[in-house]
Design a protein that fits this description.
six-stranded mixed beta sheet; 15% strand; alpha/beta
Length: 671
């Protein structure tokens, strides 16, 4: 089961309810500081906290401008803070169908409404006729009962009608009792006309994923007094209302480490000896160190050292009983160790996260909460203090986490975004009076908001400029995005896409190709060129071929693949976009500029004749005096980004053939 979408609001700065699609693996919230990224995470966290600590509090969570009017109706008509839509997996569906005789299909989903009184309501829709049909096969039913089951639309309706039978058989009495048992479970729930829906809920409830939230406040300290921690824990137990004041995040972090080592605070006064306690904690630390070094590539000569000892000469509270010390030993410098909290902020964060996550897994497993569930990880500005390359290491770790857990994280760092996975990005903006707005539409977002995405793309290009062995030079980012998207699409259709070893490099126009080749050629790299064709050979390209700077076999233009039956030969003037059908391109054009076009929908018959779809559209806009930007024409990249964000689900065999031939030629040239 996975979270398919979340409808959040009203909640804090999210003034109005808005639904956001959640990626099956990783969802990235990108936005400026104070835009509302954390607000979205906290709304989800409070809906279904895995540790059952977080709850909705109207004074803290309801939008302040509407709080006074809402408080008057909160007790009798609480608002909904979050609506979570879950989609069942194939295994879940098979289990439900087998257990309940339903006939739900792939993609089945249901909604859970989380209200400000911390109660939930459900919206589970199911066709009960297959369930009734299965009941007709039960033994001991009369013809009258079978006809009632066949004519009924719901199990509740059948139950009421079955009771009208004057003389019930033993089989009918058993069936009525069975239905009554289900009805009794729903008697305190209003609106449960569909008994099978309630049975589905009871069957899948234990598998619904819960949320785990981690932020920069949950860091491990370098040392902590264990007697002080024990006192705080006692005060928190006797007065739960003040628990947050007594048990701060640093205390939670140490408790997490102790839980993983199977050590209780009582053990330090009346349990095993010093050596056993230390060895238990060190065992966990060694395991965590190994896990850190699996992804931490900045310095692989470090070890975690844990010590437990008193220090009467220290200042209070560290002079009272045993202290737990965390130190980092550097093998490169003859084992010199430093206090954990004196290490780099990035390392402290990374190690603290691993302790937190592993301890949460241990804690949930210990109480039986995690037996069938997978958590959804909410990471608030993860790895912000890490070096750019270390952030990339952490992205790899997130990829590993996403195999078993959906991950939703916030960032404004360009190094925490996969440039080739923009479909996972949701932009978060503060719209003033409108409050926080979360959207999947990158092209319509504020330039400052999407700057990390632009920087991520630029950084990806810049780093590949020096390390890629196989490079395909194209004119601009539109070509890069379209080629990446189409490669994925044709692979999904069983054809060969662009080799993963090939780096697509936008050079800013055909005039820059010669400059880039001059820069790259000396590095012994393999190069190919793909450019738009205006109907005549390009003199600069021809000159590089004649000078043997480029091989003719590694130079391609879009026109050579327009006719999928005869690839490789120059044909009519063509841009890369002309490998798409005009009707498909126009569909995304109309979508990308829906706001600017108003009620106008541009169709192919409306366009003037011509060979290139872009030129035809620009002539149409000029003729009809339609302005889509301050300068004539339109932003071609907006159309391509719309295709990238929402790839077509159905494409023609001819389109697949055109791009598969294009990738075949390029792969061969850069073998």
């Amino acid at each position: 089961m996975r979270l398919a979408s979340a409808k959040v609001g009203p909640f804090r700065s999210i003034s109005r309810s808005q639904s956001i699609a959640i990626d099956p693996s990783i969802t990235v919230l990108v936005g400026m500081n104070e835009a509302g990224k954390t607000v979205f995470l906290k709304a989800l966290h409070k809906a279904r906290d895995a540790l059952e600590i977080e709850k909705y509090l109207i004074l803290d969570d309801y939008p302040r401008k509407d709080l006074a009017s809402y408080r008057k109706r909160h007790q009798i008509n609480p608002d909904t803070a979050v609506i979570l839509t879950y989609e069942l997996s194939k295994d879940d569906i098979a289990e439900v169908n087998n257990e309940l005789n339903t006939n739900i299909s792939e993609g089945y989903n249901f909604e859970v409404y989380h209200q400000y009184d911390n109660q939930i309501s459900l919206d589970i829709k199911v066709d009960e006729t297959p369930v009734l049909a299965a009941m007709t096969t039960l033994e001991g039913l009369s013809n009258e009962a079978i006809e009632i089951l066949k004519d009924s639309q719901t199990v509740r309706q059948a139950y009421e009608r079955l009771q009208s039978i004057s003389l019930l058989t033993e089989g009918e009495q058993t069936l009525i009792e069975r239905i009554k048992t289900s009805l009794d479970k729903a008697k305190d729930l209003s609106g449960w006309d569909m008994i099978t829906a309630l049975e589905i809920w009871h069957l899948i409830y234990s598998k619904i994923p819960q949320f785990l939230y981690f932020s920069d406040y949950d860091l491990l300290p370098g040392k902590l007094n264990l007697n002080d921690l024990k006192r705080r824990q006692t005060l928190a137990t006797t007065n739960p209302a003040n628990e947050a004041k007594q048990i701060e995040p640093k205390h939670q972090a140490i408790l997490a480490l102790l839980r993983m080592a199977d050590v209780d605070l009582e053990d330090f006064s009346s349990g095993p000896g010093y050596d056993q306690l230390k060895s238990q904690i060190e065992s966990v630390s060694i395991n965590l160190t190994d896990r850190v070094l699996e992804f931490w590539k900045q310095n692989e000569d470090i070890e975690i050292e844990v010590d437990i000892r008193p220090d009467p000469s220290d200042a209070a509270p560290f002079n009272d009983g045993p202290n737990l010390y965390l130190r980092i030993k550097n093998k490169k410098h003859r084992g010199v160790s430093t206090s954990f909290d004196q290490r780099s902020r990035g390392f402290i964060w990374f190690f603290s996260f691993l302790v937190w996550f592993d301890s949460i897994q241990y804690q949930l497993g210990l109480v039986g909460k995690a037996s069938e569930k997978k958590q959804i990880l909410l990471l608030d500005e993860p790895a912000l203090a890490l070096h750019a390359l270390a952030q990339k290491d952490f992205l790899n770790y997130i990829d590993q986490l996403s195999v078993n857990h959906q991950v939703i994280y916030t960032t404004h760092s360009p190094f925490m975004v996969h440039a080739d996975r923009l479909h996972q990005v949701r932009v978060v903006e503060d719209k003033g009076d409108e409050g926080t707005i979360i959207s999947e539409n990158l092209s319509g977002s504020n330039a400052r908001t999407i700057f990390p995405l632009q920087a991520a793309l630029g950084w990806n290009i810049a780093q590949n400029l020096f390390i890629a062995k196989h490079n395909l030079l194209v004119e601009g980012v539109s070509e890069l995005a379209l080629l990446q998207t189409m490669s994925k699409i044709i692979e999904d259709h069983g054809e060969k896409g662009l080799n993963s070893s090939i780096t697509i490099m936008p050079v800013g126009g055909i005039n820059n190709i010669a400059t880039f080749i001059s820069l790259l050629n000396g590095n012994g790299l393999n190069l190919a060129v793909l450019y738009d064709y205006n109907g005549t050979p390009d003199q600069k390209i021809d000159s590089m071929i004649k000078s043997k700077i480029l091989s003719k076999k590694s130079v391609f233009n879009a026109s050579q693949f327009r006719d999928h039956e005869a690839p490789g030969e120059n044909t009519i003037a063509s841009d890369l976009e002309d490998l798409l059908e005009p009707i498909l391109y126009l569909e995304y054009f109309n979508s990308a500029f829906r706001k600017e076009l108003g009620e106008t929908i541009v169709l192919e018959p409306d366009l003037p004749p011509g060979d290139r779809i872009i030129q035809r559209i620009e002539k149409y806009l000029l003729k009809n005096k339609i302005t889509l930007r301050p300068t004539p024409g339109y932003n071609h990249y907006s159309v391509i980004i719309a295709i990238t964000m929402n790839p077509p689900k159905h494409v023609s065999p001819a389109l697949i053939k055109r791009f598969s031939e294009l990738f075949k030629y390029i792969n061969q040239a850069l073998k």
